[in-house]
Amino acid sequence: MDETSKKTLSSIPLLKTKAGPRDKDLWPQRLKEEYQALIQYVQNNKAADNDWFRLESNKEGTRWFGKCWFIHNLLKYEFDIEFDVPVTYPATAVEIALPELDGKTAKMYRGGKICLSDHFKPLWARNVPKFGIAHAMALGLGPWLAVEIPDLIEKGIVTYKEKSTQ
Amino acid sequence: VEDTQASLDELMAQMKNI
Protein backbone atom coordinates (compact mmCIF):
# COMPACT_ATOMS: atom_id res chain seq x y z
CA MET A 1 0.00 0.00 0.00
CA ASP A 2 1.39 3.44 -0.86
CA GLU A 3 2.04 5.96 1.92
CA THR A 4 -0.87 8.23 0.98
CA SER A 5 -3.34 5.35 1.17
CA LYS A 6 -1.84 4.22 4.48
CA LYS A 7 -2.22 7.73 5.88
CA THR A 8 -5.81 7.99 4.64
CA LEU A 9 -6.72 4.64 6.13
CA SER A 10 -5.06 5.31 9.47
CA SER A 11 -7.01 8.55 9.91
CA ILE A 12 -10.38 6.77 9.70
CA PRO A 13 -11.54 5.82 13.21
CA LEU A 14 -11.70 2.10 13.95
CA LEU A 15 -14.95 0.51 15.04
CA LYS A 16 -15.38 -1.39 18.27
CA THR A 17 -18.65 -3.30 18.23
CA LYS A 18 -18.84 -6.66 16.49
CA ALA A 19 -22.46 -6.91 15.43
CA GLY A 20 -24.41 -7.61 12.27
CA PRO A 21 -27.80 -6.30 11.18
CA ARG A 22 -29.70 -9.13 12.90
CA ASP A 23 -28.16 -8.46 16.30
CA LYS A 24 -31.06 -6.54 17.83
CA ASP A 25 -29.10 -5.48 20.90
CA LEU A 26 -25.77 -4.40 19.43
CA TRP A 27 -26.52 -3.43 15.80
CA PRO A 28 -27.73 0.08 16.77
CA GLN A 29 -24.41 0.68 18.52
CA ARG A 30 -22.48 -0.68 15.51
CA LEU A 31 -24.51 1.56 13.22
CA LYS A 32 -23.65 4.62 15.31
CA GLU A 33 -19.96 3.71 15.03
CA GLU A 34 -20.33 3.30 11.24
CA TYR A 35 -21.75 6.81 11.00
CA GLN A 36 -19.08 8.24 13.28
CA ALA A 37 -16.32 6.74 11.13
CA LEU A 38 -17.99 7.88 7.89
CA ILE A 39 -18.49 11.42 9.18
CA GLN A 40 -14.84 11.66 10.18
CA TYR A 41 -13.70 10.24 6.82
CA VAL A 42 -15.82 12.68 4.83
CA GLN A 43 -14.59 15.58 6.99
CA ASN A 44 -10.99 14.44 6.38
CA ASN A 45 -11.68 14.29 2.64
CA LYS A 46 -13.17 17.78 2.58
CA ALA A 47 -10.14 19.13 4.47
CA ALA A 48 -7.86 17.48 1.92
CA ASP A 49 -9.89 18.94 -0.97
CA ASN A 50 -10.87 15.44 -2.02
CA ASP A 51 -14.57 15.23 -1.17
CA TRP A 52 -15.36 12.19 -3.29
CA PHE A 53 -18.49 10.53 -1.92
CA ARG A 54 -21.67 10.80 0.13
CA LEU A 55 -23.55 7.92 1.72
CA GLU A 56 -26.73 7.48 3.69
CA SER A 57 -28.76 4.50 4.81
CA ASN A 58 -32.30 3.45 5.50
CA LYS A 59 -33.38 3.73 9.12
CA GLU A 60 -32.31 0.16 9.87
CA GLY A 61 -28.86 0.71 8.40
CA THR A 62 -29.22 -2.36 6.20
CA ARG A 63 -29.42 -0.62 2.84
CA TRP A 64 -27.00 2.12 1.85
CA PHE A 65 -27.00 4.48 -1.11
CA GLY A 66 -25.26 7.61 -2.27
CA LYS A 67 -23.00 9.12 -4.88
CA CYS A 68 -19.32 9.23 -5.69
CA TRP A 69 -17.38 11.60 -7.89
CA PHE A 70 -14.23 11.21 -9.96
CA ILE A 71 -12.35 14.02 -11.64
CA HIS A 72 -10.61 13.19 -14.90
CA ASN A 73 -9.08 15.81 -17.19
CA LEU A 74 -10.81 18.60 -15.25
CA LEU A 75 -14.27 17.04 -15.65
CA LYS A 76 -16.25 15.73 -12.66
CA TYR A 77 -18.01 12.42 -13.24
CA GLU A 78 -20.76 11.29 -10.87
CA PHE A 79 -21.94 7.73 -10.16
CA ASP A 80 -24.67 6.28 -7.94
CA ILE A 81 -23.58 3.92 -5.18
CA GLU A 82 -25.67 1.24 -3.48
CA PHE A 83 -25.11 -1.80 -1.29
CA ASP A 84 -26.76 -3.94 1.35
CA VAL A 85 -25.15 -4.97 4.61
CA PRO A 86 -24.82 -8.77 4.59
CA VAL A 87 -26.24 -10.81 7.43
CA THR A 88 -22.72 -12.01 8.30
CA TYR A 89 -21.30 -8.49 8.48
CA PRO A 90 -18.72 -7.45 9.64
CA ALA A 91 -17.02 -10.81 9.08
CA THR A 92 -18.24 -10.47 5.50
CA ALA A 93 -17.50 -7.12 3.92
CA VAL A 94 -20.12 -5.08 2.09
CA GLU A 95 -20.22 -5.43 -1.70
CA ILE A 96 -20.30 -1.94 -3.13
CA ALA A 97 -22.17 -1.54 -6.42
CA LEU A 98 -22.24 1.15 -9.10
CA PRO A 99 -25.43 0.09 -10.92
CA GLU A 100 -24.98 2.52 -13.83
CA LEU A 101 -21.78 0.72 -14.86
CA ASP A 102 -23.27 -2.77 -14.77
CA GLY A 103 -22.20 -4.65 -17.88
CA LYS A 104 -19.73 -1.96 -18.95
CA THR A 105 -16.58 -3.39 -17.41
CA ALA A 106 -15.17 -6.83 -16.74
CA LYS A 107 -14.13 -5.60 -13.29
CA MET A 108 -17.69 -5.96 -12.04
CA TYR A 109 -20.04 -8.72 -10.97
CA ARG A 110 -23.66 -8.88 -12.01
CA GLY A 111 -25.63 -6.00 -10.60
CA GLY A 112 -22.71 -3.61 -10.78
CA LYS A 113 -20.82 -4.94 -7.76
CA ILE A 114 -17.19 -3.94 -8.03
CA CYS A 115 -14.48 -6.62 -8.16
CA LEU A 116 -11.86 -5.89 -5.55
CA SER A 117 -8.16 -6.69 -5.59
CA ASP A 118 -6.76 -9.85 -4.04
CA HIS A 119 -5.45 -7.72 -1.17
CA PHE A 120 -8.87 -6.63 0.03
CA LYS A 121 -10.38 -9.80 1.50
CA PRO A 122 -7.41 -10.86 3.66
CA LEU A 123 -6.91 -7.29 4.82
CA TRP A 124 -10.57 -7.03 5.78
CA ALA A 125 -10.51 -10.43 7.52
CA ARG A 126 -7.44 -9.42 9.58
CA ASN A 127 -9.21 -6.28 10.77
CA VAL A 128 -12.67 -7.55 11.68
CA PRO A 129 -14.50 -5.90 13.48
CA LYS A 130 -12.40 -2.72 13.37
CA PHE A 131 -12.98 -1.97 9.70
CA GLY A 132 -16.36 -0.66 8.64
CA ILE A 133 -18.12 0.90 5.70
CA ALA A 134 -15.76 3.88 5.66
CA HIS A 135 -12.79 1.54 5.37
CA ALA A 136 -14.52 -0.43 2.62
CA MET A 137 -14.94 2.82 0.70
CA ALA A 138 -11.30 3.83 1.23
CA LEU A 139 -9.84 0.41 0.44
CA GLY A 140 -12.38 -0.77 -2.08
CA LEU A 141 -14.26 1.82 -4.09
CA GLY A 142 -11.61 4.56 -4.02
CA PRO A 143 -8.85 2.48 -5.64
CA TRP A 144 -11.36 0.84 -8.01
CA LEU A 145 -12.48 4.21 -9.35
CA ALA A 146 -8.88 5.36 -9.74
CA VAL A 147 -8.04 2.38 -11.94
CA GLU A 148 -11.25 1.75 -13.83
CA ILE A 149 -12.84 5.12 -14.55
CA PRO A 150 -9.96 6.66 -16.57
CA ASP A 151 -9.89 3.50 -18.67
CA LEU A 152 -13.66 3.55 -19.21
CA ILE A 153 -13.51 7.22 -20.18
CA GLU A 154 -10.64 6.71 -22.60
CA LYS A 155 -12.58 3.88 -24.25
CA GLY A 156 -15.68 6.06 -24.56
CA ILE A 157 -17.74 3.69 -22.40
CA VAL A 158 -18.23 6.40 -19.78
CA THR A 159 -19.02 9.85 -21.14
CA TYR A 160 -19.31 13.17 -19.36
CA LYS A 161 -22.84 14.31 -18.52
CA GLU A 162 -23.17 18.03 -18.01
CA LYS A 163 -25.52 18.94 -15.14
CA SER A 164 -28.46 20.97 -16.46
CA THR A 165 -28.89 24.42 -14.92
CA GLN A 166 -32.34 25.54 -13.81
CA VAL B 1 -14.41 5.89 17.42
CA GLU B 2 -14.98 7.81 20.62
CA ASP B 3 -17.94 7.27 22.91
CA THR B 4 -20.62 9.72 21.88
CA GLN B 5 -23.81 11.08 23.41
CA ALA B 6 -25.18 11.75 19.92
CA SER B 7 -28.14 9.60 18.94
CA LEU B 8 -28.25 7.59 15.73
CA ASP B 9 -30.77 10.06 14.31
CA GLU B 10 -28.42 12.94 15.10
CA LEU B 11 -25.50 11.16 13.43
CA MET B 12 -27.61 10.39 10.35
CA ALA B 13 -28.61 14.04 10.14
CA GLN B 14 -25.00 15.13 10.58
CA MET B 15 -23.94 12.93 7.69
CA LYS B 16 -26.71 14.35 5.48
CA ASN B 17 -25.75 17.92 6.29
CA ILE B 18 -21.98 17.66 5.83
UniProtKB/TrEMBL annotation, chain A:
Keywords: Ubl conjugation pathway. GO terms for molecular function: UFM1 conjugating enzyme activity. GO terms for cellular component: cytoplasm. Signal peptide: none annotated. One of its GO terms (biological process) is protein K69-linked ufmylation. Gene3D superfamilies: Ubiquitin Conjugating Enzyme. The active site is at C115. It comes from the Eukaryota. Belongs to the ubiquitin-conjugating enzyme family. UFC1 subfamily. E2-like enzyme which forms an intermediate with UFM1 via a thioester linkage. This is Ubiquitin-fold modifier-conjugating enzyme 1. It comes from Homalodisca liturata. The lineage of its organism: Eukaryota, Metazoa, Ecdysozoa, Arthropoda, Hexapoda.
